[in-house]
Amino acid sequence: MNSEEQQQRAVQAFTDFVHTPLEKLLQRHLNTQSESAALALFHEVAATVPAYQAFLAQEAINPTEYQSFEDFQKLPLLTKQNYLLCHSLANLCRHGRLETCDMIAVSSGSTGKPTFWPRFFADEMEIATRFEQIFHDSFYADTKRTLAVICFTLGTWVGGMYTTNCCRYLASKGYPVTVITPGNNKEEIFRVLAELGSAFEQVVLLGYPPFLKDIIDNGIARGIKWQEYQIKLVMAGEVFSEEWRSLVGERIGSQHPCYDSASLYGTADAGVLGNETPLSICIRRFLADHPDAARALFGESRLPTLVQYDPLSRFFEVQDGTLLFSGNNGIPLVRYHISDNGGIISYDAMFQFLKEWGFDPVADLQHHGVKTLHTPSGQNTVRGIRSLPFVYVFGRSNFTVSYFGANIYPENVTVGLEQPVIREWVTGKFVLQVQEDADKNRFLSVVVELAPGVEGSEEKRQTIASSILSQLKRLNSEFANYVPKEYQIPQVALAPTGDPEYFPVGVKHRYTRK
Fold first, then answer.
1. pTM (predicted TM-score)
2. What pLDDT, on the 0 to 100 scale, is given for residue 29?
3. Could you tell me if residue 443 is inside a domain?
4. Which domain holds residue 42?
5. SS3 per residue for 24-86
6. Residues facing 314 on adjacent strands
7. Could you read off the pLDDT of 417-468 as tens digits, one per residue?
8. In this structure, what CATH number is given to the domain that contains residue 409?
């Protein structure tokens, strides 16, 4: 690829993004078969990427013999171990040329060893559409002066710079969006709000959920009146409960929980794979209130992240309860196994399921006073309803603990700590583990971190244990049925903020211990 071709790639991608209305971008999949697009990506990668050519040769695969989607589904899976770690960074890129990418990001992964992910400007245009979807459909940022405050860590890590770039592209498309990048510097975030917030009609904070909650709680302690800024939230990186969304929404003065926040399903490997929409949030909130329906839909006693995705941008498949995806990027990936537990549900199948449970999410959104849009075809439609498929994602399965044969998920305990009154006492962090007493009887231990300035007491301890038990029984049918009643009550211990054994400062927190 010569410099002229590189220029053309950039110009074409930017022109397409700026001049193609969001409506048209999100309807492409209705006119183009996503299976055919995935097959075409395979042939293109097989023809241009040296590492993939070597991988196919090693597997004795002749790409010309793979001409149908059934053939595509027989292709071996790519993983970090069998592909990414076996080849040089250059050979993972098209034509073996790392210089065709203009940016490299870093992810530390679960091992802590950095992985490098190159990408080109054109790759970011694809992901910018995910941000446009949120800013347009959820935040009405096409008509409101919006300050986007990047609270993700800046530097080489993937979240900060990628998010910053994508938000800037919205301004290029004509959105009245202005971006500022304090990163995860709390004092700078508060200064930005104090000095700039009132100049805009709304302020969007973009960051990891626990960090944003920390900012909001610290702000309240400082006397910040969040409701004055019409705060919206964009989050990534962690599964959170609907109780958490309600709690944080209450503290920022949110009026419409389905429209005031959105979570991204993103990876360093390929940018943003899908995003929450007003529709997906509305459905998830119904499922949070109806655990039986959630179990029937997802097959587990915990609520996953539920997002919608564009199958022409990121093509998902499911194998043995885990997700695979194919997508274009600086390192294009075909049938990449990301080790996330989850599944996919078509738009029609989701609505059919909800109908059987007597729930209409469109009517629910309208009932809560959401404005309708007048479309070019003359119809009125609720903003945020897009006929895109759904993907759901659980956290990695190794974060569960097994107790009397029941899988206990941190998500179940989290809901117990987010109940009224209790949520004022705690930070939300805890350590869940199964331990044995002197008689070798097993018990469920939960060490809970108290909020700054809160003193522990026996009354608080008992209230928290009772709340956790109540939510475990409500949400987790295995727990309710497998664990004998005399062993169900968790043994709760309260630890001060930053306890060095359980909650060391500056270390990524783990919610379970084996």
1. 0.83
2. 87
3. yes
4. 3-99
5. HHHHHHHHCCHHHHHHHHHHHHHHHCHHHHHHHHHCCCCHHHCCCHHHHCCCCCECCCCCHHH
6. 327
7. 999 999 999 999 999 998 877 766 779 999 999 999 999 999 999 999 999 9
8. 3.30.300.30
